[in-house]
Specification:
The chain has 19 helices and 22 strands. The protein is 41% helix and 20% strand. It is globular and about 65 Å long. Helix 10 packs across helix 16, helix 11 packs across helix 12 and helix 15 crosses helix 18.
Length: 513
């Protein structure tokens, strides 16, 4: 008797890699996850070894296949998503040329951004790319590499991004999709192809970039070599996939203008669906993995994990005793603190800012007193990240997009406290979804379209995802947060010049060392 097809999703994240096997209805059959280290050798730098990604992907795929009773031939398609923008150079033989690519949150190319702004018409380039000049874009990271590791740039046959490096290891084919191409600052947003003008401004050879595919398009098949490494059957189709952020939005059903998303993880993002990019230097735009665009704002850094790892010994110990997550304990502690954290305000840019402030931005706890306790800091982290996201919400509203709710995705969606904080600061209902699978589900849906199991990714996502819990704003809290948000904005704007001055001092000290 024929069995229904199954689909494999792979998510190469910043903190770890997840692999999940789904049935045709989007239910997880088996999954596996493994963490790895984010390497930060200097302030503002963040890198990882691509070979580590491949090792963990292979290990997790094998584990998932081995733990399921599914014949491997029933895996009809593979979709890959991953952390975005990190340029991974390979030579013509596919050998890796650089094992420390700068990740999406890396700010080492800030000088290139500053110089670029001084010699080009940024407004013209924003019109072409739909994005301001800022550090995450792949092309500007390649620009840094050309200036600081020229031999690697010269030898590079193609620059891939994390998920496309995995696609290459699976298929032997080089590719890039809509979403990742739109995040290079080398992509013409209107014509949806590589831009000679942008490439000329950055001094990048477009021949070193792969061909652009639709995210659901099959780019190759599992090779016999990849079969030995992963256990997947050779000949299984692999689609181009997409950036983890966009695949997460697909998996959450963010495919229409009435829906927005709040994603809390290593990065905290507010994202909106639009038929066209919203052109404004204060926000960014990425092509969705389905037709349409995603205007968004982002806060980088994984601050709750940072607090847990650096200061959360007691929470970790209590969690071990009770068999809970340390984040659950942190949530319980912060819930005892009133809205507004008794006047404690956090600026959450621990690893720099992209569009509304300095790439050299740092974190600020403002208003600390001897009356504040650890729980105040935890709640202030949640509130500060949401204040920062609110700045992007305001810009998008000014540009005419007014969604009626926020779908919550990622670790923050698990927290009842943070769900309420977000509802109170945004002044909109927040919603918890029926699935937390995120990027791997979106990648699997794309694989299903490519393999012919589904006709349309957007409609399938709508069918698979439902709202299981809603949280409405509390008027009293909204009033408190409205006042403190004004303080946040004034504080945010007033310290920008100091960040740049501090960075200059730090650079001088590093030269002495």
């Amino acid at each position: 008797m024929a069995r229904e097809p199954h689909l494999l999703g792979i998510d190469v994240g910043t903190e770890g890699t997840k692999v999940a096997l789904f049935d045709i209805n989007g239910r997880v059959v088996k999954d596996a996850y493994e963490e790895y280290e984010l390497i930060c050798p200097r302030a503002g730098w963040a890198e990882q070894d691509p070979e580590k990604w491949w090792h963990v992907v292979s290990k997790n795929v094998k584990a998932v296949l081995a733990s399921s009773d599914l014949p491997v031939e029933e895996v009809r398609g593979v979709g890959v998503c991953g952390q975005m923008h990190a340029p991974v150079p390979i030579d013509k033989d596919g050998s890796l040329l650089y094992r420390s690519p700068s990740l999406w949150c890396d700010k080492r190319n800030a000088p290139q951004c500053e110089r670029l702004k001084s010699v080009v018409d940024e407004e013209q380039l924003i019109k072409i790319s739909a994005n301001p000049i800022t550090t995450p874009w792949t092309g500007i990271k390649i620009m840094w590499m050309k200036e600081n590791a020229f031999e690697i740039y010269r030898k590079a046959y193609k620059f891939l991004v994390p998920k496309d490096y995995i696609v290459y290891k699976l298929t032997g084919e080089v590719s890039i999709d809509w979403s990742e191409a739109s995040g290079t600052f080398l992509f013409d947003a209107e014509k949806e192809k590589w831009s000679d003008e942008l490439a000329g401004a950055l001094g990048i050879d477009l021949e070193k970039l792969p061909s652009i595919y639709a995210s659901h398009q099959v780019v190759g098949e599992i090779t016999s070599e990849a079969e030995k490494t992963t256990g997947l059957r050779s000949g299984t189709p692999v689609v181009s996939g997409g950036g983890d952020f966009l695949c997460t939005l697909l998996g959450a059903g963010v495919v229409s203008e009435d829906r927005a998303a709040d994603i809390s993880g290593t990065a905290s993002i507010v994202a909106f669906y639009s038929k066209k990019p919203l052109i404004d230097r204060r926000i960014m735009n990425l092509h969705h993995v389905v037709p349409g665009w995603i205007p968004f704002g982002i806060v980088e850094g994984g601050l709750l994990r940072w607090f847990k790892d650096e200061f959360g010994k007691s929470e970790r110990e209590e969690a071990a005793k009770r068999g809970l997550s340390p984040y659950k304990i942190m949530d319980e502690e912060a819930a005892k603190i009133p809205a507004g954290s008794d006047g404690l305000v956090l600026i959450p840019y621990f690893i720099g800012e992209r569009t509304m402030g300095s790439p050299y931005a740092r974190g600020v706890f403002f208003g600390l007193t001897l009356a504040h306790r650890r729980a105040h800091l935890i709640r202030a982290i949640m509130e500060g990240i949401t204040y920062a996201s609110m700045q992007s919400v305001e810009v998008v509203r000014q540009l005419g997009l007014r969604p009626d709710s926020f779908r919550l995705i990622g670790g923050g969606a698990v927290s009842p406290l943070w769900r309420q904080i977000k509802a109170d600061i945004y002044g909109l209902q927040t919603q918890v979804l029926s699935t937390y699978q995120g990027g791997v589900l979106g990648a699997a849906i794309l694989a299903g379209v490519g393999a012919g199991a589904f006709k349309d990714a957007s409609s399938v996502a709508n069918e698979m995802v439902s709202i299981v819990e809603s949280c409405n704003p509390i008027e009293k809290n909204c009033e408190t947060y409205h006042k403190l948000y004004k303080v946040y904005v004034q504080l945010h704007d007033s310290v920008q010049a100091l960040y740049d001055e501090l960075a200059k001092i730090q650079m001088q000290l590093e030269k002495r060392w």
